[in-house]
């Protein structure tokens, strides 16, 4: 028991090293080690399902103990990390085949997994930051595996993530300067006793770091490029897990370090929730709406999913920032759900890319018959994403809406609802342009993906159903976690929420039954109704022209052009452009600065004289420097 | 005191030459002036009024009558070091002249920024 | 012009501050700290009549070792810098033809110069002078030879061996001190002898002779390199 | 019993080998190149032998001429000096092993002598206990460096060498003037003795000699704005020399400044001023590095930035600041030396110093590129490498008291670390993922070049895995440095 958390933490790292070395022998050894060790991590994690560990001393650094701990919330996030990483590893066995440097790729994947696990297990800020930094640069190495364009994306990511990490570092150092220990509990005590200005500074600095990683606007600019350019399995890790780590950080910040009551005291303004949390809620709300709109306009499947990730993480952050038990539960649950369905979507789109080689939506279409499993996975994914019952996305979104209603935060609710509606538009676009409609001629030999790539799709589809119908499975962990952090958990049961205390009830088993019943009824009507007459896709005409196989007859480019015309003028100013402008002006400034090295000997020697004579001048003045 | 001032002026003139003069040889002369000035300064620090050379050349000379021997020893070292620097500098100038065909420092500006 | 005035002002500020500093330590005032100790203990501890020599070689012997090393480094640097040019011009070519008087005169004077130089460094511990001065004088003799016979060259191999051996002598004699009772580098382990005699002051004369050879050969080497730069060519 | 661990052997042994090389050279030029590794190895062994003694006594003092310290030159080795001596010997050993294959230009005998002298001078600088001796050691170092910078004799290196020489000579003269002023004021040259006697002087009287010494050493120590020679000189030298120059030589000069500031002058009042200088050094170094196209020039500017970084940590004046400074010195020395060695190995293959020409060589020169990445990561302070801990220590030290001023400082520091990350990542990206230029035949450098920097890389990796002992030791060193009385008493009272 004593070494066990260490063992858990070291398993993925060991696996990474072993699979790297094993890859030198044979590639099957590499895959065996990678899959074995990441499954092992998952298995080990289940030993802690009901067993929180508070204090596992890792070592001592700068007079501050480095500890590991596991509580239900960290368990939840560790579960997300290990599951999605395992599935990504399985998925990339075929997906990444034939690329160079695979040993290194698996090594990196396992190290990223270990680092993220370390973040969730960290019991003090130093450990947290250590693994955070490891995670940043190793995930950078993963992103740039995707070829030429990904390098630029990765560059943007690493710069932003260094900035975020550094901002956290300032906050950590400020805390360390006061109490010389960084354990969460002591930090929380310090924050409770500190002046408000200090607390706010700490909060903002941490929040910048977490916002970058969680891709909350306006620090999201790295996401769209990085997700779309990285290999698909990496994108699913990034979107499914990395973002959640940012959300986890935000959760730790809000509830482990600060706590709602302290946050309420910091800026006593009359809002439904503490001002700081309210502000974060607005950041999240704007994230939801803006990135939903952006997702609608994308032509690139992975970019679409990337923007959708930003908007979905907005829900998570929004839920966490509401501050009520229901909202927190909703946010955390949505984190789990989003990890499931977004990874699922990335896997299915990855499968499509694997077979067709393109991710441009306008080039795809009609793959439903060719890739049925992938289509089914996508269908589950988009239903979950759009928040349609009975799948899991619905439950968590319902909880967030309910929490917003309880708090009477009407504007945020409207933003959230707009985002949800908008997501219908883009998920429809996604599945329509990919699987429905006309099959382009060049893809007529496309086959279903290999079995190994289907496994993650199947499992995650199952996950959307399981957590949709039995939300209590997740709520079990979440409620214990809430109790751990001193929040009274809401009432729940296996199938949903019994309601009470001004909260509506939700019983997913009923909804699902109705839903399934409806499906059955519809099928019966469909079966008993008039016989359909099947005709070929090309037995048709459009605008007086006969449709042939080499012309497209359905909308695929500029699907929502009408919508774009409305919102594009607003998006003329993007955060990305502003950052680039800053970078450019800093560039120019730096370029001027370095001209001090003129290459001119007399200038150089005159610096010496000037310096000494300045000192001399001070002495002549009387030796008073300051 | 005049020795001090002379030494300082030598140093200042040396620095002036390095900053203002364009000719490489003059710059080297500037370097030499600085080191000469420094040596003059060191020796004059060691001087004790009415003192004699610190050598026990005949029994009548007592330690109390002598000037400070340390600065003289330091000067000895400093002179040699200055000479070494100068030799190396002269060598550099000779090669620079081979490369650039001129002794103008303004032309020797290949490396910057 | 403005630059000149500006820097003149800057430099005069430096001079002014330096003067201001040294007002507290006026010229001619006895500022001796450790110097007094040297003067009082010189005869007892080193046995050298010339206290400057005692300071240079014994009390501050490590400085002298460093200084020799600096000179050695400079000589090596000069020969590095002139190396390429040697390759360019293999042929020895006479450019200057000094007249008869210079050639014969230099041949006559050269041994005397060597003798004088050797005298100075051998008597370094007794009279003003020492290895550096003597070595420089010897090198000036070589310079004179070069002026008279631009086409001829000294044997660089012998010079190199000389300077190396001289340096080794210094280091080895210094290191012996570590292994004697004092555990101290440059410990004067030889008998001190009688004051003002040639064989006195322990290892100091030996060190000064080594330095004399070393400085002489190094300066000669530098002169050789520089002469080759303009007059002759080809190191080997 | 014969005391074989006398620290003066650190000077005597390499000098013996230098002069031996001079004797051997006329007969066999090849043989001389085996002397520097041997000498540095012996030095390394001696320094390792000294570790327990220093750990036990704090400061070990060796006399010369059998006279006790204030009256003769003494060698005083404390924790900081010894660690720098270890680094110097280690880097010297590795770079001289690298030289065996790397240096093909003539005259090799002179090169080897100068290279050995450079290492000796650096060791000498960090262990001496006498101000004038410091000047001499400084000159040994810089004169051999002048010669080595000009070693390749092409247009660039001659120009760089000349600039360096003029700047370095001015610096040496300034240092000498400062030392002489101290002598005029106190009548002694021993550091500890000066430290005792100078205590009675006012701030104003101390300022002028201090500023001369500071400026003189600052030229060599690459402090802004006196560092303009550095980006010319370091790239122009052969890579092994650059690795020594960047890795330890500027650090040795900084060491001398630290020694002068803390031990000799006890000048805590000056720290805001040097903090400003350090910050400017950092900012200008990193900013200029960002714009470089030449890999060695970029590394040289990065050296300026790093120097500013650890000098900044030192100028905080606290124990933790010194600790951070020491850790960063260690980290920077090892990583930067390794980066220069690798850059040299790559240049032998690519035949260009332009970063654009390095694109894609990561696939061909795997070992070099991977170790380049390790060095760069360590330099940037990414975990788990040692640089992370030193960066953390420095940041913690800066923010020991939170106010507007310290936060501004930290923001500047971290902004610079972002810039550093930006240019290092840019290089690594093009190395690993760029397109290989067509028609270029690039393969891994010969083992003679690879093995030395791999050894260095293993040292860095070891530090990454076991940082704790070094962190503990660095704290001890910092405490020892701050308590200057220990040093002074050991020198003056001992024996």
Distance between the termini of chain C: 50 Å
List low-pLDDT spans of chain A: none
Spatial order of the strands forming the largest sheet of chain A: 1-2
Structural class of chain A comes to mainly alpha
Strand content of chain C: under 5%
Helix content of chain C: 55-70%
Q: Structural class of the secondary structure composition of chain C?
A: mainly alpha
Percent range for β-strand residues of chain A:
under 5%
Oligomer: heterotetramer
Summed up:
Chain C contains nine helices and no strands. Chain C is mainly alpha-helical.
Describe it.
By secondary structure, chain B is mainly alpha-helical. Chain B has one domain: Helix Hairpins (Orthogonal Bundle), CATH 1.10.287. Chain B is about 65% helix and about 0% strand. Chain B is built from three helices and no strands. In chain B, helix 1 runs antiparallel to helix 2 and helix 2 packs antiparallel against helix 3. Chain B is elongated and about 60 Å long. The mean pLDDT of chain B is about 85. Chain C has one domain. Chain C has nine helices and no strands. Chain D has one domain. Chain D has a two-stranded antiparallel ribbon. Chains in contact: A-B, A-C, A-D, B-C, B-D, C-D. Chains A and C meet through helix 23 of A and helix 1 of C.
Blueprint of the fold:
The complex is a heterotetramer of chains A (626), B (113), C (236) and D (495).
Chain A: H1 4-25, H2 27-47, E1 53-61, E2 64-70, H3 72-95, H4 102-121, H5 125-143, H6 148-179, H7 184-193, H8 196-214, H9 221-229, H10 232-258, H11 260-266, H12 275-296, H13 301-322, H14 325-356, H15 372-386, H16 392-407, H17 410-435, H18 451-469, H19 472-484, E3 496-497, E4 506-507, H20 508-528, E5 541-542, E6 545-546, H21 561-567, H22 575-593, H23 601-621
Antiparallel strand pairs in A: 1-2, 3-4, 5-6
Chain B: H1 2-20, H2 24-46, H3 69-100
Helix pairs in contact in B: 1-2, 2-3
Chain D: H1 9-24, H2 35-57, E1 60-63, E2 74-77, H3 79-102, H4 108-127, H5 131-149, H6 155-186, H7 191-197, H8 203-220, H9 230-236, H10 239-265, H11 271-290, H12 295-315, H13 319-350, H14 366-380, H15 386-398, H16 404-433, H17 447-465, H18 467-482, H19 484-493
Antiparallel strand pairs in D: 1-2
Helix pairs in contact in D: 1-2, 1-4, 2-3, 2-4, 3-4, 3-10, 3-13, 3-17, 4-5, 4-10, 5-6, 5-10, 6-8, 6-9, 7-10, 7-19, 8-10, 9-10, 9-12, 10-12, 10-13, 11-12, 11-16, 12-13, 12-16, 13-14, 13-15, 13-17, 13-18, 14-16, 14-17
Keywords:
heterotetramer, A: 626 residues, mainly alpha, 3 domains, two-stranded antiparallel ribbon, two-stranded antiparallel sheet, 23 helices, 6 strands, 71% helix, 4% strand, globular, D: 495 residues, 2 strands, 2% strand
């Amino acid at each position: 028991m004593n070494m066990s958390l260490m063992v858990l933490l070291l398993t993925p790292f060991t696996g990474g090293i072993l699979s790297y070395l094993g890859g030198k022998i044979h590639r099957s050894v590499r895959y065996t080690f990678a899959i074995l060790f990441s499954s092992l991590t998952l298995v080990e994690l289940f030993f802690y399902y009901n067993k929180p560990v508070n204090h596992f001393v890792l070592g001592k650094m700068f007079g501050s103990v480095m500890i590991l701990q596991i509580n239900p919330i960290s368990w939840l996030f560790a579960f997300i990390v290990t599951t999605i990483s395992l599935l990504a590893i399985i998925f990339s066995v075929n997906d990444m085949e034939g690329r160079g440097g695979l040993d290194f790729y698996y090594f990196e994947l396992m190290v990223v997994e270990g680092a993220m696990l370390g973040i969730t297990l960290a019991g003090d800020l130093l450990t947290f930051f250590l693994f955070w930094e490891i995670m940043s640069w190793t995930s950078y190495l993963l992103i740039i595996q995707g070829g030429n364009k990904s390098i630029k994306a990765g560059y943007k990511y690493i710069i932003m993530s260094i900035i975020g990490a550094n901002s956290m570092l300032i906050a950590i150092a400020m805390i360390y300067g006061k109490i010389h220990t960084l354990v969460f509990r002591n930090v929380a005590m310090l924050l409770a006793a500190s002046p408000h200005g200090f607390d706010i500074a700490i909060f903002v600095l941490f929040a910048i770091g977490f916002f970058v990683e969680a891709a909350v606007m306006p620090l999201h600019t790295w996401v769209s490029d990085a997700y779309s350019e990285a290999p698909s399995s990496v994108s699913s890790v990034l979107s499914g897990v990395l973002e959640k780590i940012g959300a986890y950080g935000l959760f730790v910040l809000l509830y482990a370090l600060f706590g709602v009551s302290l946050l309420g005291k910091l800026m006593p303004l009359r809002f439904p929730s503490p001002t700081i949390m309210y502000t974060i809620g607005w950041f999240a709300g704007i994230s939801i709406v803006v990135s939903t709109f952006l997702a609608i306009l994308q032509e690139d499947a992975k970019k679409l999913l990337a923007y959708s990730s930003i908007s979905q993480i907005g829900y998570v952050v929004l839920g966490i920032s509401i501050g009520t038990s229901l909202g927190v539960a909703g946010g955390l649950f949505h984190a789990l759900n989003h990890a499931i369905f977004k990874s699922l979507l990335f896997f299915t789109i990855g499968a499509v890319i694997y077979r067709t080689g393109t991710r441009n939506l306008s080039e795809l279409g009609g793959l439903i018959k060719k890739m049925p499993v992938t289509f089914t996975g996508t269908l589950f994914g988009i239903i979950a994403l759009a928040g349609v019952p009975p799948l899991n996305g619905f439950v968590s979104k319902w909880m967030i809406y309910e929490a917003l209603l309880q708090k009477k935060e009407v504007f945020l609710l409207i933003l959230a609802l707009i985002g949800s509606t908008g997501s219908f538009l883009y998920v429809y676009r996604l599945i329509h342009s990919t699987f429905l409609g006309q099959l382009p001629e060049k893809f007529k030999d496309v086959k279903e993906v290999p079995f190994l790539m289907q496994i993650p799709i199947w499992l995650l589809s199952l996950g959307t159903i399981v957590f949709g119908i039995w939300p209590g499975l997740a709520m079990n962990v979440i409620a214990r976690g809430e109790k751990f952090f001193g929040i009274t958990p809401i009432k729940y049961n296996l199938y949903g929420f019994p309601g009470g205390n001004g909260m509506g009830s939700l019983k997913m088993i009923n909804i699902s039954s109705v839903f399934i019943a409806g499906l059955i009824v519809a099928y019966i009507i469909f079966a008993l109704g008039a016989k359909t007459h099947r005709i070929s896709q090309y037995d048709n005409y459009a605008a007086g022209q006969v449709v042939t196989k080499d012309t497209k007859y359905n909308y695929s480019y500029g699907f929502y052009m009408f919508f774009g015309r409305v919102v594009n003028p607003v998006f003329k100013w993007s955060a990305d452009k502003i950052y680039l402008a800053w970078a450019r002006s800093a560039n120019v400034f730096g370029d001027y600065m370095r001209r001090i090295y003129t290459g001119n000997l007399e200038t150089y020697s005159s610096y010496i004289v000037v310096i000494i004579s300045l000192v001399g001048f001070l002495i002549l003045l009387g030796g008073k420097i300051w | 005191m005049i020795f001090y001032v002379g030494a300082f002026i030598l140093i200042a003139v040396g620095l002036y030459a390095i900053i203002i003069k364009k000719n490489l040889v003059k710059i080297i002369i500037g370097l030499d002036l600085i080191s000469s000035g420094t040596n003059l300064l060191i020796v004059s620090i060691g001087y004790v009024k009415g003192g004699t050379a610190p050598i026990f050349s005949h029994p009548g000379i007592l330690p109390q009558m002598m000037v400070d021997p340390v600065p003289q020893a330091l000067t000895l070292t400093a002179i040699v070091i200055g000479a070494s620097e100068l030799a190396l500098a002269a060598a550099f100038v000779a090669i620079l002249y081979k490369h650039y065909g001129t002794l103008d420092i303004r032309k020797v500006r290949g490396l910057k920024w | 012009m403005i630059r000149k005035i500006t820097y003149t002002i800057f430099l005069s500020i430096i001079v002014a501050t330096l003067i201001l500093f040294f007002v507290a330590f006026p010229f001619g005032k006895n500022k001796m700290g450790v110097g007094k100790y040297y003067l009082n203990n010189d005869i007892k501890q080193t046995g050298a009549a010339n206290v400057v020599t005692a300071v240079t070689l014994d009390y501050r012997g490590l400085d002298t070792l460093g200084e020799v090393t600096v000179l050695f480094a400079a000589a090596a640097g000069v020969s590095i810098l002139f190396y390429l040019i040697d390759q360019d011009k293999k042929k020895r070519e006479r450019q200057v033809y000094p007249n008869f008087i210079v050639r014969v005169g230099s041949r006559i004077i050269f041994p005397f110069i060597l003798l004088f130089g050797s005298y100075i460094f051998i008597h370094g511990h007794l009279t003003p002078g020492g290895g550096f001065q003597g070595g420089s004088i010897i090198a000036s003799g070589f310079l004179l030879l070069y002026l008279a016979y631009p086409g001829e060259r000294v044997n660089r191999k012998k010079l190199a061996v000389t300077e190396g051996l001289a340096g080794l002598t210094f280091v080895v004699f210094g290191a012996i001190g570590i292994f004697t009772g004092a555990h101290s580098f440059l410990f004067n382990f030889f008998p001190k002898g009688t004051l003002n005699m040639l064989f006195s002051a322990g290892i100091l004369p030996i060190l000064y002779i080594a330095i004399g050879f070393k400085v002489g050969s190094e300066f000669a080497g530098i002169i050789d390199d520089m002469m080759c730069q303009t007059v002759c060519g080809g190191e080997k | 019993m014969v005391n074989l661990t006398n620290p003066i052997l650190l000077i005597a042994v390499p000098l013996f080998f230098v002069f031996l090389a001079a004797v051997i050279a006329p007969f066999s030029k090849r043989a001389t190149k085996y002397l520097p590794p041997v000498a540095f190895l012996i030095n390394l062994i001696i320094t390792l032998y000294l570790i327990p003694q220093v750990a036990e006594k704090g400061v070990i003092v060796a006399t010369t001429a059998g006279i006790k310290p204030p009256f003769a030159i003494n060698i005083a080795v404390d924790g900081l000096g010894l660690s720098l001596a270890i680094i110097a010997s280690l880097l010297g050993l590795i770079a001289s092993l690298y030289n065996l294959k790397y240096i093909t230009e003539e005259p090799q005998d002179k090169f080897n002598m100068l290279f050995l002298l450079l290492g000796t001078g650096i060791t000498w600088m960090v262990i001496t206990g006498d101000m004038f001796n410091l000047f001499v050691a400084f000159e040994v170092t810089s004169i051999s460096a002048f010669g080595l910078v000009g070693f390749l004799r092409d247009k660039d290196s001659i120009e760089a060498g000349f600039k360096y020489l003029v700047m370095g000579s001015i610096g040496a003269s300034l240092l000498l003037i400062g030392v002489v002023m101290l002598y005029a004021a106190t009548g002694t040259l021993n550091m500890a003795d000066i430290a005792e006697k100078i205590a009675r002087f006012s701030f104003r009287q101390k300022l002028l000699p201090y500023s001369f010494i500071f400026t003189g050493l600052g030229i060599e120590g690459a402090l802004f704005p006196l560092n303009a020679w550095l980006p010319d000189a370091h790239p122009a030298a052969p890579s092994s020399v650059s690795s020594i120059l960047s890795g330890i030589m500027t650090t040795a000069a900084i060491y001398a400044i630290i020694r002068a500031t803390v031990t000799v002058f006890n000048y805590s009042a000056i720290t805001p001023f040097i903090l400003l200088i350090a910050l400017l050094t950092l900012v200008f170094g990193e900013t200029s590095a960002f714009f470089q196209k030449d890999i060695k020039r970029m590394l040289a500017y990065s050296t300026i930035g790093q120097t500013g970084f650890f000098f900044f940590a030192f100028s905080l004046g606290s124990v933790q600041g010194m600790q951070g400074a020491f850790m960063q010195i260690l980290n920077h020395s090892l990583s930067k030396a390794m980066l220069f060695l690798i850059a040299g190995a790559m240049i032998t293959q690519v035949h260009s110093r332009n970063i654009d020409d390095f694109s894609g060589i990561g696939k061909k020169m795997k070992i070099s590129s991977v170790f380049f990445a390790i060095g760069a990561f360590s330099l940037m302070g990414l975990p788990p490498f040692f640089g992370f801990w030193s960066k953390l220590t420095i940041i913690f030290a800066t923010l020991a008291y939170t106010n507007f001023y310290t936060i501004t400082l930290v923001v500047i520091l971290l902004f610079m670390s972002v810039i550093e990350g930006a240019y290092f990542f840019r290089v690594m990206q093009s190395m690993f993922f760029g397109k290989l230029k067509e028609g270029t035949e690039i393969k891994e450098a010969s083992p003679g070049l690879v093995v030395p920097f791999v050894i260095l890389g293993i040292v860095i990796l070891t530090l990454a895995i076991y940082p704790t002992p070094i962190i503990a030791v660095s704290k001890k060193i910092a405490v020892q440095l701050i308590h200057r009385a220990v040093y002074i008493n050991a020198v003056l009272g001992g024996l």
